Amino acid sequence: MSTAVGRFAPTPSGRMHLGNAFAYLLAWLSARSAGGEIVLRMEDLDTLRCTDAFAEGIRRDLRWLGLDWDRETPPQKLRTEAYEAALEKLKSRANVFPCWCTRGSLNLVNAPHAADGHPIHPASCRLRSEEERRRMKGPPAWRLEAPDLTVGFTDGVYGPYEENLKTGCGDFVLRRADGVFVYQLAVVVDDGEAGVTQVVRGCDLLSSTPRQIYLGHLLGLPEMQYWHVPMLTDREGRKLSKRDAAMDLGQLRQTHRPEELVGLLAFRSGLIPREEAVSPRELLGEFRWDKLKKEDIVIL
Length: 300
Ligand code: GLU
Known about the structure:
Layout: E1 5-8, H1 18-33, E2 37-40, H2 52-65, E3 71-72, H3 80-93, E4 96-99, H4 103-106, H5 130-135, E5 141-144, E6 150-155, E7 159-164, H6 165-169, E8 172-175, H7 183-193, E9 198-202, H8 209-218, E10 225-229, E11 232-233, H9 249-255, H10 258-268, H11 280-284, E12 297-298
Parallel strand pairs: 1-2, 2-3, 9-10, 11-12
Antiparallel strand pairs: 4-5, 5-8, 6-7
Helix pairs in contact: 7-8
């Protein structure tokens, strides 16, 4: 049987948040309980907001929590060539077309919207002739035509999930007009190259998964297993976010020991029956995915 390979894929645009720590704890337990390894990758495509100092802070916070990894692959800001090669491959295998739309021109009130509220891209750019394309000014973004195809998978937490790419998502961007590659492409290329077999992350990314599976399929990459984990919320059901400074590890490390935080997350999410201080390693023997609650986890 091949070895499980899990990953931590933080975005180093701030201090690690408790919600990220929860997803990494589960990624670690999932891979380690299967005798597998863990890869760390910094998702720093947004070079304006991401810094090496935040990346180092995240490594320190992971170690403090007791979450180790076996190797770190190059950060996304150094991977432009790999993404360019993938884009070229996609151009030869699907309809990838230049697009000059601006955000403003797309947010038209009457435009059809996908389930997550983003406007479905109109066919106007896709249908432009070569002649028209030559006359357009400025560098284009590159979009992939979403086929009329339903992509489904079985999530390890939420069960069967599917989306029709054409009606649920629409033609989507691979590279922005300013040359920056988007997360959806980078994550697929990087996970594929690192040999990742298990993706564990917040359930806010559940709806991105059909798109990523489709890109992986076009690029000839092996299929992966997915577990999307519940969000942490306050008592009113509000999702905790990076804006809740009290929930970042910079603050939490001043008031808690790592085992207390791990114990809190493990108890509230159903992994252990009572709240007690525990290390990730101590959770390993008892870890089973089916213990995890599927509802949002109230933390505050
Ligand atoms: N970089 C993303 C984050 O920090 C995670 C992306 C993923 O796990 O696919 O939220």
